[in-house]
Automatic annotation (TrEMBL):
Its EC number is 5.4.99.25. Pfam families: TruB_C_2, TruB_N. It catalyses: uridine(55) in tRNA = pseudouridine(55) in tRNA. Responsible for synthesis of pseudouridine from uracil-55 in the psi GC loop of transfer RNAs. InterPro entries: PsdUridine_synth_cat_dom_sf, PsdUridine_synth_N, tRNA_psdUridine_synth_TruB, TruB_C. This is tRNA pseudouridine synthase B. The active site is at residue 46. Residues 31-179 form the Pseudouridine synthase II N-terminal domain. Belongs to the pseudouridine synthase TruB family. Type 1 subfamily.
């Protein structure tokens, strides 16, 4: 089998995604722009949503699950008065209502949407139902039966009312929370209907606007793919929340071979916690302490594009 086309690029690129382009389209643009072998993204943003879209190259794609699990922060505008097929302004109107809740009524229902809740995803979502994406079924005129799913919302706050038709919210949430569904359900809880008029992701795990670059700026620096590498963040950036453990050269090699090590020098309080093993500041991989041994979970090899790293989990 021949090698994949492109360069073995490793690292994270944080895009401040504009409106009217999908996450997959951004990934494809970055693949071509960087001439990279392996590219993925952490957390879909719809074309009508803007904000932080982390793009992973090479070995960094192996850390995508840790970003997907991380806390996100959003701001969205809920427009009262009409529910829509897509739960945003792109869809067709399903139902209308003249009722407009006041600020007190809105704030009164928000505790229902905080903590561990059950949420019914929008029918226009990428969830698979019987092998097909929900949005594919919806576009064929079918009505997918969406089942409630667990969702974690840390906080949802009403921050602005420009007029009676609109309300702006700040949300901090965990993995898999649909902001369109949240906006829809807040309106319903207030005795009316509504949809998202605008949505922006302001933070995704350790990444926010301070790390981000626009597509326009990247394109201005696109004369040569390798010159773009300066915009990449190290793979380890995605693992900042995981405690670091310095290992020796011999220990690093043993972990790469899948061997366990005595954990005598590791504090008992972190037994079974995930650790970021590092040698001379470079991430070797992720390990876990179990039964007095340091055991490799996922080992990274930054000498290639991520195809040959090892997962021991």
């Amino acid at each position: 089998m021949g090698r994949k086309k492109g360069r073995p690029v490793n690292g994270w690129l944080i895009i401040d995604k504009p409106l009217h382009i999908g996450s997959t389209d951004v990934v494809n643009k970055m693949r071509r722009l960087f001439n990279a072998r392996k590219v993925g993204h952490a957390g879909t943003l719809d074309p009508l949503a803007s904000g932080i879209l982390p793009i992973a190259f090479g070995q960094a794609t192996r850390t995508i699950p840790y970003i997907m699990e991380a806390t996100k922060r959003y701001q969205f505008t809920l427009e009262f008065g009409a529910s829509r097929t897509t739960d945003d302004k792109e869809g067709e109107v399903l139902e209308t209502s003249d009722h407009r809740p006041d600020d007190a009524a809105i704030r009164a229902v928000l505790p229902r949407f905080t903590g561990e809740i059950m949420q019914i995803p929008p029918i226009y979502s990428a969830l698979k139902l019987g092998g097909a994406r929900a949005y594919e079924l919806a576009r064929k005129g079918e009505v997918p039966e969406m089942q409630p799913r667990p969702a974690r919302i840390d906080s949802v706050t009403l921050t602005e009312r420009s007029d009676a038709d609109h309300a702006v919210f700040n949300v901090q949430s965990g993995k898999g929370v649909y902001m369109r569904a949240l906006a829809r359900d807040i309106a319903r809880a207030c005795g009316t209907v509504g949809h998202i008029a605008s949505l922006r992701r302001e933070k995704c795990g350790p990444f926010d606007v301070s790390n981000a670059i626009t597509l326009d700026k990247l394109l201005q620096n696109s004369e040569k793919a390798s010159t773009l590498d300066g915009f990449l963040l190290p793979l380890a950036t995605a693992l900042d929340d995981i405690p670091a453990l310095a290992v020796t050269e011999g220990e690093a090699q043993a972990l790469k071979w899948g061997q366990t090590l005595p954990a005598l020098h590791i504090s008992a309080e972190i037994e079974a916690d995930l650790l970021r093993a590092e040698f001379q500041g470079d991430v070797i991989g992720l390990c876990r302490v179990s039964e007095g041994r340091l055991r490799p979970v996922r080992i990274f090899d930054l000498t290639n594009d991520g195809v040959d790293d090892v997962d021991y989990s």
